[in-house]
Design brief:
Radius of gyration: 28 Å
Strand content: 15-25%
Number of strands: 7
Order of helices and strands: HEHEEEEEE
Strand order of the largest sheet: 1-6-7-4-5
Largest sheet: 5 strands, mixed
Structural class: alpha+beta
Distance between the termini: 82 Å
């Protein structure tokens, strides 16, 4: 009985003291890295279209330039809609990126590439197949990267 009372009194005396703070989180500083996305993909297939070399051509939009310089099928209709199909996939499986930002519509899943003019960009990189998912595009057909010189 004496042992039980001594444990109980010791517990009551120490119950009012706050528990020591335990460090459970570590704050890290933010690190930003920039790299060429093609550097770490040696087996990926890329087509590079330099727009400055094709400045004298009649291609006013990116869909015309891609059709002239690559084997990619772009479906167009009389209403002006142009959708890209890489490797036979649907247009929602192909992403069009500017600086890592996807231009595809959030509701439709694809974008009208006939409305993107060529004078805004210096180079077009086309990546075929699902290897474009390594760059964060999430598309299994391929990706079109519109690049600008700094």
């Amino acid at each position: 009985m004496f042992i039980l009372l001594s444990f109980l009194s010791a517990y009551c005396l120490h119950a009012e003291e706050p528990a020591p703070a335990v460090m459970d989180s570590v704050l890290l500083d933010e690190i930003i890295t920039y790299s060429d996305y093609r550097k770490f993909q040696p087996g990926a297939k890329f087509d590079l279209i330099n727009i400055e070399e094709h400045s004298n051509s009649h291609a006013n939009s990116i869909d015309q330039l891609i059709m002239l310089n690559s084997p990619i099928y772009i479906k167009t209709n009389a209403g002006g809609l142009a959708t890209i199909r890489i490797r036979g996939t649907a247009p929602d499986h192909t992403s069009i990126n500017i600086g890592g930002i996807n231009l595809n519509s959030l509701t439709l899943g694809h974008s009208n590439i006939s409305s993107v003019p060529t004078f805004m960009f210096d180079q077009i990189d086309i990546q075929y197949g699902s290897s474009s998912t390594l760059n964060g595009s999430g598309s299994i057909g391929g990706a079109v990267y519109l690049r600008q010189k700094n």
